[in-house]
Amino acid sequence: MNKEFKVWLILNYKTGQFKVTKKKPFKLNASDIPIDIKLNVEIPEHPIMKAEGTIKLSQAKINEMVIEEL
Among 6, 9, 11, 23, which one is least packed by beta carbons within 10 Å? Predict the structure, then answer.
């Protein structure tokens, strides 16, 4: 069985803290990075789960964050 999850990960790059929400964020701090996540999860008969991945930011996004910080 497969199930799809759509969430937003709000990552604060200064503090390392993050939160997950189902709704698109509308008010963010300057150091928050909103990341739209869509997960397709295959549910096995005996669920044992492991999550891993990579988040890549474009150079434009990094420049925008630096400018906002200044």
Answer: 23
